[in-house]
């Protein structure tokens, strides 16, 4: 039986200013994973495999501060904020919520499109760290 795609892709056009908001999405994911890690620690569950997976995700997402810093610098320049970029957006079919990996991929796709448009190697390098994030499942 052939596997069915569980998501769809579409090409989206956005202003650079709107695309830079992807950094906030990455920050939100970092805070969520950090909170999950703390809940394990508060319940003395550090010995579990899931704790190790969550900790690895937190460590990989720690680079989000660098991504945010670079995004803020680009926003301050103001010269390019209204320019348009295109990126590929992934979304689930139906009314399913967007999983963490999808939120991260969409944010990275937006920011990578900005980096390519304005030729910003520093942002490209910071985003390459985001590719190593492996989000654990809830169960």
TrEMBL record:
Q: What is this protein called?
A: Uncharacterized protein
Which lineage is the organism of this entry classified under, starting from the top rank?
unclassified sequences, metagenomes, ecological metagenomes
């Amino acid at each position: 039986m052939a596997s069915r795609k569980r998501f769809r892709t579409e090409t989206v056009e956005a202003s650079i200013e709107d695309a830079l908001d992807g950094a906030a999405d990455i920050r939100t994911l970092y805070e969520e994973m950090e909170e999950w890690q703390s809940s394990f620690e508060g319940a003395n569950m550090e010995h579990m495999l899931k704790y190790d997976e969550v900790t690895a995700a937190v460590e990989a997402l720690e680079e989000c501060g660098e991504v945010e810093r670079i995004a803020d610098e680009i926003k301050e320049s103001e010269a390019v904020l209204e320019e348009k970029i295109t990126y590929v957006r992934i979304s689930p079919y139906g009314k399913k919520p967007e999983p963490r990996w999808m939120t991260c991929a969409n944010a990275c796709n937006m920011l990578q499109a900005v980096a390519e448009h304005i030729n910003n190697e520093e942002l490209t390098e910071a985003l390459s760290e985001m590719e190593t994030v492996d989000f654990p499942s809830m169960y």
